[in-house]
Amino acid sequence: MRAWRISKASRAADLSGIGAAIEGGRWNDADVPAVYLGLSPAICCLETFVHQTRRPQIPMKITVLELPDDAALYFEPAQADLPALWAAQPADRPSMAYGTAWLTRNEQLGLILPSAVLPIERNLMLNPRHPAMSAVQVIEILDFEYDQRMFFVRP
After folding, report:
1. How far is CA 12 from CA 60, 76, 95, in A?
2. Cβ-count burial of 117 within 10 angstroms (0-12 exposed, 13-18 middle, 19+ buried)?
3. Residues of 73-100 as b/e, b for ≥16 C-beta within 10 angstroms?
4. Using CA atoms, how far apart are residues 82 and 153, in angstroms rounded to an integer?
5. Average pLDDT, the chain
6. Mean pLDDT value of segment 67-83
């Protein structure tokens, strides 16, 4: 399975989950490591773009990862089984508790979730503490820039 992530250049190959543990994320509490990926490069772009207030001034990278193809390593809950306000802005406590509980159980490598930006797209949260994490491979790290038109102010 292929997955992608966009990050600061300095963290492009870092799969420790420390970045997400610093403040927590939509699906993890602070101090709980997690690695957030997209199942397409386009959703990675949208997911990171919504957090920008201006064109990034630091170098960005898009990392291509190869993950084990064993379906037993992944869990994809039905959207109806997710907490009611899972897509709230900012992320709400129930979604963070849901993902943290999944990470703590350490049963699967990846949790496949809908994107809060575009729910028909899917994201993947990896558990860096799962034994199968050693099989995750960084395939390629490419330079990344948002298209300049994304930052145009339109009348």
Report:
1. 8, 25, 26
2. middle
3. bbeeeeeeebeeebbeeebbeebbebbb
4. 36
5. 93
6. 96
